[in-house]
Structures are given as structure tokens and as C-alpha cells.
Amino acid sequence: MFVQHKQLKVLSIPAGKVARLNTSAYNVQLAFPGYTPQPAAAYLIAVSGGSKVLVIVGFFLSESKESIFFVPKQGEVSVEEAERVFDEGFVFAESMGFVLSETDFHLLSNGDQQKLWQSLPICRQHETSVPAESVIQPPLAAIGSDDLENYRKRSLESLGRFLASM
Prior knowledge:
It is built from three helices and eight strands; from the N terminus they run E-E-E-E-E-E-E-H-E-H-H. The chain has 166 residues and is an alpha+beta fold. It folds into two domains: 129 residues, no CATH class; 31 residues. Strands 1, 2, 3, 4, 5, 6, 7 and 8 form an eight-stranded antiparallel beta sheet that branches. A hairpin with a 2-residue loop joins strand 4 and strand 5.
């Protein structure tokens, strides 16, 4: 079982510690608590640290430019258990509608590994245009009937895309 790691915002680990990396072939519309529904990319990473491995499932929200990370409830696991937990992470990401592809990260040269790792949006801090705390939503009564109808249509479209991805 994977749980959200709320303190983790960016993966600032060296590329040399990454044992495996899978990425999504396309973005999927997701709705995480506290975020508006938006397209997201998925990443499945196995980070090796000696005799322990940490499997991380990361999602990069393309509109808010933020990353959300999930880790196994038990945290780091032994090398022997790593494959089983990695498979659980694979199922977890694919249950949300993602198709994950192997990057053959471990077969790349050190320089290419570094370039690929640094190019991933989950490894970089992104500037958001407006802090979420500064956005003030108007009360529902102030929204006109046309705005409300447009909101309903967008919500139904979003729900349709979500259900289609399942």
C-alpha cells in the first residue's frame, strides 16, 4: 500500500542512486485532494541505498507545476523485497490510468543518466505564477448562471475523462 509523502516536493537525489525508472507514456487527468483536476504525468522510481531500496511513485501536475509523491507504507525495503514493492507501485500507477514504460535508465552512461534525471519535472523546483493561498474564490451566489452552466459542463467533461481513463 502506498501513502502520500506530504513533505516531499522535489526529488533531489543523485542520479547514481536511481536503480530503476519508469515513466508514463502520456498524461492522465487526475484530481488529488487540494488540487484542481488537471493532467498529470507518472513516474515510478526505485532508489537504491546500500542494502535498502525505496520505491517512489511520483506525479507531476502539469497546470499547477507541482509534484506529489507516494511511498510504500513500510518505507524502505530490503533488496529481496524490492521487486515485489516495485510491482505494487506499477499496479498503483496503472490503476489510475497510466501506462508506464521502462526507460532502461540503468543501461545509460553516467552522463546520460544525469541528463535524463535532471530533465524530469519531478526533480526540479517550479515557480508557480500565483500562490494558491492568494487566490480568492468568489462566493457561489456571486457566480452568474452562465458561469455556473460553464462550470457544470467542465465538471462533466472532467468526470467523463476520469471515468474513461479507468
